[in-house]
Amino acid sequence: MFLEDTIKSSDKGGWIEVICGSMFSGKTEELIRRLRRAEYAKLNVEIYKPKMEVRYSEDEVVSHDDTSIRSTPVETSRNILLLSNNVDVVGIDEAQFFDIGLIEVCNDLANRGMRVIVAGLDTDFLGNPFGPIPALMATAEYVTKVHAICMRCGCLANHSHRTSEEKKIVVLGETDIYEPLCRKCYQKEIQSSKQQDDK
Ligand code: ZN
Q1: Is-contact 59 71, C-beta < 8 A?
Q2: Where are the alpha helices (DSSP H) in 55-172?
Q3: Quick one: DSSP state of residue 161?
Q4: Contacts of 198 (CB under 8 A, 6+ apart)
Q5: What are phi and psi of 61, to 5 degrees?
Q6: What's the CA-to-centroid distance between 187 and ligand 1, angstroms?
Q7: What is the structure's pLDDT at 1?
Q8: How does the average pLDDT of the chain come out, rounded?
Q9: Among residues 46, 53, 94, 179, which one is catalytic?
């Protein structure tokens, strides 16, 4: 489990933490856990999410296990910079949906002395690196990769397999159209859907 090296220290500079993984891997739960601890430490916490992400609640970050925390939906990554005065800890959920400018924004906030915690999908449904997450992983001080459980075999799952025919990269959904799969089961699935297409 990730433990803050110093939860409260004014002379320590800022830093970036990334929490990434597939769908249903507990990213948001982990983000909320860290943010709550910062709140207990009486730190000023602000949480943002992209405006499009309205799966559950307009102004709350809600995890699959129904814990929630108040958040501000923002249009672009620039808005995070503008809204983060007098903040000690910045939380960002569903970060894969933000523009690429998020990388500079997070680094800027950390350079100003803030702790920045970013949660997001590391890969899309095709298994490709997703939006600003890869570059954030590279520039972050701490990266935590969390895993779901494969729905087929019970191994650790790394892939968000889409069970619908939709081909767009961004399709919001839950267990209705996504399932976590391990590498082996995901490959099996891709092969068999290729064979279907060839017929
Ligand atoms: Zn599997």
Answers
A1: yes
A2: 77-83, 102-111, 133-139
A3: E
A4: none
A5: -90, 115
A6: 9
A7: 80
A8: 90
A9: 94
